[in-house]
Write a structure and sequence with these properties.
Helix content: 25-40%
Strand content: 15-25%
Number of domains: 5
CATH architecture of the largest domain: 3-Layer(aba) Sandwich
Strand order of the largest sheet: 6-7-4-3-2-5-8
Distance between the termini: 26 Å
Structural class: alpha/beta
Shape: globular
Oligomer: single chain
CATH class of the largest domain: Alpha Beta
Number of strands: 22
CATH superfamily of the largest domain: P-loop containing nucleotide triphosphate hydrolases
Largest sheet: 7 strands, mixed
CATH topology of the largest domain: Rossmann fold
Radius of gyration: 31 Å
Length: about 675
C-alpha cells in the first residue's frame, strides 16, 4: 500500500464507497490522511444521565442502552419524527430526530449507543434533539478513548469512515515522506509531518492547547501552509526581480527642483520617509514592488505623483490604474492642476470614442504621452507603451493579481507601486501582498480636519435635517448616503430613488441631485463636477462616492442604514468630508430596532477616528473577504491557518521564505516549493 493507492483498494471501501469518497475529493490513501476530524469526543468520561440537569444547553456525551425506539408523524406539521429512550443505569432521557424516518432501520431496542448532543428542558422533561450517535458492538473497554469525528460523506456510517481513515493511518502513514527539510523544520520550530498527522487523527490528550489549535501538530500544519504560500509569493517575486531593469533612474538637483514645484504643501515626515523608500527602489537595479498604504486624506496621491515625475524626468512613461471612472477622472484633474503644463497627460476609460482610443494608442506607442490615468481600459491588448517605467495601481484590492501582472507585462520590468486608502492590518496585508514591500503613511497632513462622528436613530432624523439646513445656510454642502438604489422585495433598506424624492420634498429650496453607479460615466462626471463647483447643495448617493472623491466644501455626511456597512467602508465614506477648512460632521443612522451587535459596532466607529484601529476591529468582526467588501478579494484562503489568530506565524513564515531564497538561491527554493505542493496540491485544489 502506497500513499498514491486509489481508495477503492483499501480494505472496507469497495466501488460504492470509493465513489462517495472521490465525490468529496478523496481519491487516494494520501487524501485520507489530509481528511481531518472536525471535532473530537472524549469517550473516557461520559456524563451520567442522572446528572444531565446540570448540563442543560451544553453539549454532553452519554452512553447507554435503548429502551424504546419508534417513528411517528407530528399531528400539526405532519413532520416525521423518530424518538428513542436511552438509559444508563442511573436514569433515562428521550432522544428526538426530525425528518429521519430511516433511523427505524438503524436504531432498535437493546442497541448500545454513544450519543453526543445538547440536552434541553421541554414542558415535560429533558430531551436531546438531533444528537450525533454511534453504535458500539465491542466491550465497554473499547469505548474509553478519544474518538475523532469526521464530516459525513454520502451514506458511509461515521464508524466505518473512522475505520477507513484508521487503516490509511496504519498502512500508509509510515510511507509518507516529509517534504520539509530538517533545517527548515528546525528554523520554523515544527515537528515532523508523520507525527503531526497522527496526533491530529489520534490525539492522546484534548487539552486547551489542542482544542485552541496551538498544539505542536496544529502548528506544524499551519506553518507548512503559511510557508508554502509565502515561498510561492517570494519565488514569483524573485523570478521577476531576476529580470534586471534595463533603465537607470537618476535623481539630480534639477529633478528635485521639478518635484518641489508640484508640491502644494510641505510633506509630512511620514510622506518624506515613504518618498525616500520609493526613490531608493526606483534607483535600484531590481524592479520595485511596493504597497503604499495610508488612511484617507494622508496624501498618497502626491507621493505617487512624485514617483511619476522622477520616472518621467528620466525619459520613461507612467500608467496609473484606478478602479472607477470617477476616481480616474479625479486623479486626472488633480494631477493636471499640480504638474507643469509641458507634461503630456491622457485619460483611458471605457467610455472613450473610437477616435479617442486610436489617438491614445498612438500617443502611448510613440512615447508622446508621458502619463496616462485610466481604468481597466489600460489593460486592453492594443494599449502598448514605448517605455513604461512605472505602473501605479490605486485601490489594489479592487483588482486581481492577474490585472496587476497584465499591466506589468506592458513594459520592460516596470516598477510597480500599489496604493490603497483602506487601512489594512499588517496580518491581512501579508496575506494579500506577501510579495510586496510595505510603506505606510501613518500621519495626516497639517490642517486636515478631525471629523465629528455621531450615531443617531431614524426617529432623530428631523434634528439631523434641521442641522443640514443650518450648515447649507453657512455655505457648506452635504452628502446623504443610501445603501441601495431601488426598492427590493427582499430588503427593508432605504432605497436611493425614494430617498432622493423625499430629500427634494424635505428641502424644496435646496439644490438636490442624485449619484449612483448605474448612471453613465458622463452623467456621473457632470454631477460630481457640479457638486465640486458648489452648484449642488445636497448630493444623494450610494457608496459610489466611497473612494477618492475630493470636495473641500462638503462638510456634512449622513449615512442611512449605517448598520448595513462594514466599519472600514464607513470610514472610507467619512473620509469624503473634513477635506477643507470647515468643521465637519458624519452622522451614522440606524433603526431603533437594529441588531444590538450592529449598534455596538456603530458605537465603536463613533468613538474611533484612526483608520488602522477601525480596520483591526472590522477585520476581527467580519473576516477578510467581507472586510474588503467582496469575497472575491484576492485574499488567500487558508485551510489550517487563520490570519488574525496566527499573524505572528505568517510573519515568521515570510521571514524564513525570504532567508531561504537569499541563502540558497531561486532554483533551490523552486525545488522545495515543488516538494511542498506535491503533498498539499490535491487538498489545495479541493479547498
Amino acid at each position: 500500500m502506497s500513499p498514491d493507492t486509489p481508495v477503492k483498494f483499501l480494505k472496507g471501501v469497495g466501488e460504492g464507497r470509493a465513489k462517495a469518497l472521490e465525490s468529496a475529493g478523496i481519491a487516494t490513501a494520501r487524501d485520507l490522511l489530509w481528511f481531518f476530524p472536525y471535532r473530537y469526543e472524549d469517550r473516557r468520561h461520559p456524563t451520567r444521565i442522572a446528572d444531565l440537569g446540570r448540563h442543560v444547553e451544553s453539549p454532553v456525551l452519554i452512553r447507554g442502552r435503548i429502551l424504546s425506539a419508534h417513528a411517528r408523524v407530528s399531528p400539526v406539521k405532519r413532520m416525521k419524527i423518530f424518538e428513542a429512550v436511552i438509559e444508563d443505569g442511573t436514569a433515562s432521557v428521550k432522544l428526538v430526530w426530525f425528518n429521519q424516518p430511516y433511523l427505524s432501520d438503524q436504531i432498535a431496542r437493546g442497541d448500545r449507543l454513544s450519543v453526543y448532543g445538547t440536552p434541553r428542558l421541554t414542558s415535560y422533561n429533558l430531551q436531546i434533539d438531533s444528537p450525533d450517535w454511534e453504535k458500539f458492538e465491542g466491550s465497554e473497554d473499547d469505548e474509553g478513548s478519544i474518538v475523532s469525528i469526521y464530516s459525513k460523506i454520502g451514506t458511509i456510517a461515521p464508524k466505518t469512515l473512522r475505520q477507513i481513515v484508521g487503516r490509511a493511518l496504519d498502512e500508509v502513514l509510515p510511507e509518507i515522506e516529509d517534504p520539509m527539510p530538517e533545517e527548515i523544520r528546525k528554523t520554523l520550530g515544527v515537528i515532523g509531518l508523520r507525527e503531526a498527522l497522527l496526533a491530529i487523527h489520534r490525539p492522546e490528550v484534548l487539552d486547551e492547547q489542542f482544542l485552541r489549535q496551538r498544539s505542536p501538530a496544529h502548528l506544524r500544519l499551519i506553518l507548512q501552509e503559511f510557508f508554502s504560500f509565502m515561498l510561492a509569493l517570494r519565488v514569483r517575486r524573485a523570478a521577476e526581480e531576476g529580470q534586471k531593469k534595463l533603465r537607470r533612474i537618476h535623481i539630480d538637483e534639477e529633478l528635485r527642483a521639478e518635484v518641489r514645484k508640484i508640491l502644494p504643501f510641505k510633506l509630512t515626515n511620514a510622506q518624506k520617509r515613504v518618498v525616500k523608500e520609493i526613490a531608493d527602489d526606483l534607483c535600484g537595479s531590481k524592479p520595485m514592488y511596493r504597497l503604499l498604504q495610508g488612511d484617507v486624506g494622508s496624501g498618497k496621491t502626491i507621493v505617487a505623483l512624485i514617483a511619476a515625475v522622477i520616472v518621467i524626468g528620466n525619459g520613461h512613461q507612467v500608467a496609473l490604474l484606478a478602479p472607477t471612472e470617477i476616481l480616474a477622472e479625479q486623479h486626472f484633474q488633480r494631477i493636471s492642476q499640480l504638474v507643469d503644463k509641458s507634461l503630456v497627460i491622457a485619460k483611458a476609460t471605457g467610455s472613450m470614442s473610437a477616435g479617442e482610443r486610436r489617438t491614445l494608442q498612438a500617443g502611448l506607442r510613440e512615447g508622446l504621452i508621458q502619463l496616462v490615468v485610466g481604468t481597466h481600459a489600460l489593460l486592453e491588448e492594443k494599449i502598448r507603451f514605448k517605455s513604461l517605467g512605472l505602473a501605479i495601481v490605486d485601490e489594489q484590492h479592487r483588482f486581481g493579481v492577474e490585472q496587476r501582472q497584465a499591466l506589468f507585462e506592458k513594459g520592460e520590468t516596470p516598477d510597480i507601486l500599489v496604493m490603497t486608502a483602506t487601512p489594512i492590518p499588517r496580518s491581512l496585508a501579508l496575506a494579500m501582498y506577501g510579495d510586496l514591500e510595505l510603506s505606510v503613511i501613518d500621519e495626516l497632513p497639517p490642517g486636515r480636519q478631525q471629523v465629528k462622528t455621531v450615531l443617531r436613530t431614524a426617529s432623530q432624523l428631523d434634528r439631523v435635517w434641521k442641522f443640514i439646513d443650518e450648515e447649507i445656510d453657512a455655505g457648506a454642502q452635504t452628502y446623504v448616503v443610501f445603501p441601495i438604489i431601488e426598492e427590493s422585495e427582499k430588503s427593508n433598506l432605504k432605497p436611493l430613488t425614494a430617498g432622493f424624492e423625499a430629500m427634494k420634498q424635505r428641502f424644496p429650496n435646496r439644490r438636490v441631485e442624485m449619484l449612483h453607479g448605474r448612471m453613465t460615466a458622463a452623467m456621473k462626471e457632470e454631477t460630481m463636477a457640479r457638486f465640486k463647483m458648489g452648484e449642488i447643495d445636497i448630493l444623494v448617493s450610494t457608496t459610489v462616492i466611497e473612494v477618492g472623491i475630493d470636495v473641500p466644501n462638503a462638510s456634512m455626511m449622513v449615512i442611512l442604514d449605517a448598520d448595513r456597512f462594514g466599519l472600514s467602508q464607513l470610514h472610507q465614506l467619512r473620509g469624503r468630508v473634513g477635506r477643507g477648512e470647515r468643521k465637519s460632521y458624519c452622522v451614522i443612522v440606524c433603526e431603533e430596532k437594529a441588531n444590538p451587535e450592529a449598534v455596538a459596532r456603530l458605537k465603536t466607529f463613533e468613538q474611533t477616528k484612526d483608520g488602522f484601529d477601525v480596520a483591526e476591529r472590522d477585520l476581527e468582526i467580519r473576516g477578510p473577504g467581507e472586510f474588503l467588501g467582496t469575497r472575491q478579494s484576492g485574499v488567500a484562503r487558508f485551510r489550517f491557518g487563520n490570519i488574525l489568530r496566527d499573524h505572528a506565524l505568517l510573519e515568521k513564515a515570510q521571514r524564513v521564505a525570504i532567508e531561504l531564497i537569499e541563502r540558497d538561491g531561486l532554483d533551490r527554493a523552486k525545488d522545495l516549493l515543488g516538494q511542498l505542493l506535491g503533498v498539499t496540491i490535491a487538498n489545495a485544489a479541493r479547498d
